[in-house]
Known about the structure:
It is a single chain. The protein is mainly alpha-helical and 454 residues long. The protein is 45% helix and 7% strand. A hairpin with a 2-residue loop joins strand 1 (7-10) and strand 2 (13-16). It is globular. The strands form six sheets. A three-stranded antiparallel beta sheet has the order 7-10-11. Helix 2 packs parallel to helix 5 (134-144), helix 5 packs across helix 12 (263-283) and helix 12 packs antiparallel against helix 13 (288-305). It has a single domain (7-453), classed as Glycosyltransferase, CATH 1.50.10.10. The two termini are 22 Å apart. It has helices spanning 24-37, 56-69, 71-82, 109-112, 134-144, 148-171, 185-188, 197-200, 207-211, 229-244, 252-255, 263-283, 288-305, 342-353, 389-401, 405-422, 442-453; strands spanning 7-10, 13-16, 39-40, 43-44, 54-55, 94-95, 260-261, 306-307, 312-313, 316-317, 322-323, 427-428, 435-436. Residues 51-444 form the Mannosylglycerate hydrolase MGH1-like glycoside hydrolase domain. InterPro entries: 6-hairpin_glycosidase_sf, 6hp_glycosidase-like_sf, Glycoside_hydrolase_63, MGH1-like_GH. Pfam families: MGH1-like_GH (PF22422). This is Mannosylglycerate hydrolase MGH1-like glycoside hydrolase domain-containing protein. One of its GO terms (molecular function) is Glc3Man9GlcNAc2 oligosaccharide glucosidase activity.
Amino acid sequence: MTAGAGPTRxxxxxxxxTGGPADLAGLRRLAVDTLxxxxxxxxxxxxxxxxxxxxxxxxxxxxxxxxxxxxxRAWRELTSLFRAQWxxxxxxxxxxxxxxxxGAYFPGPEMWRSANAQGTPDVDTSGLVQPPVHALAALLAYxxxxxxxxxxxxxxxxxxxxxxxxxxxxxxxxxGDGLVCIVHPWESGLDNSPAWDEPMAAxxxxxxxxxxxxxxxxxxxxxxxxxxxxxxxxxLAVVAAYRDHGYDDRGxxxxxxxLVECPxxxxxxxxxEDALAEIAVLIGHDPGPHRARAAQIxxxxxxxxxxxxxxxxxxxxxxxxxLVSARTVLGLxxxxxxDLPARQADALxxxxxxxxxxxxxxxxxxxxxxxxxAPDFEPLRYWRGPSWLxxxxxxxxxxxxxxxxxxxAGLRRSMIGLVAGAGCHEYFHPDTGVGLGSxxxxxxxxxxxxxxxx
Length: 454
């Protein structure tokens, strides 16, 4: 919370006195107003400034919140995203709004050139994907508003959700070990996490490349809070390598510069099969294959990405076949898998409660995205320290699934307190709770609605 501001209690929730809404009803109104302001004909933009198009996993989180207040929009949100699904089943991480001017966001359609690839939709998109939280979002949207229209929407989405999973299993299992490989840090959702420093260090970014573009993000946010220019140049080099290969996943092992098995992505991959099993039951399909695949993914995740010495999960760099040593919030997210073995689940709770992350029944500071005790912890820079509601929300689900309701309650209070103190910001300072990034961020508003509803 804000330094020097003592907490007050609103409806049993500890919040800071920083001029935020004075009651939980006010918080709910703030969240609804934020989502309404960011609604764009058939989807919700993450923010009107930094992210004016449609983003994949943003839409999933947004649908969960919309289901509480605008259930028809929740289904339109997911349906519009999956209209941009490629023929191979991938769901692109950006769907560009053709009504916006060229240059409204960088890298825009002119960088991605998706129309040149095979099996792409009739709208410009990126060629990357993001964590497959969409099946879970669809299931939760239905649970939040279980009516015939929602069930019909769920039935319509099911084949597309299955195709998304099939793409990841068939095209992205580069090592042949049952896990998905991401081909760019942006696919993890945690764009500039310290977890990617080692794999990205080998990616070339010549000075000429760094001069060949103009960033959009630093026009709307403090550059000290965003990835560095060198990081950004490397990101674009990896995009260009994938694009110039036609976004074809065949042959990735031979030459693509970034190949990593990510704990969060694969936890979402496994959780999606669990959600699909429940959806299958609802619409009269066989849940058995989904449950079997969920078990296989969980087993592979433990076997490949769990480090027993560190007591946490870590990404595996397929270029070196080594686990990355950085201890980030990525390592805690496998808690979202309901069948994660007790040994690993217990170890993750120990890790979460350590000084590195500070999870507690009465949390003094928000959950950070990187080890607080690490020398490269940066409390202001994007995913290198700040607190985000979406990672906290995923971990809270895991705590509940593995029998830690008091810790889950502490995390919930902390997340609600962040928004009460600073508003629906994109992310927050992990010590003071000051809002960072976009000031009217959609998934923060949506997940706040979900937390308030409980």
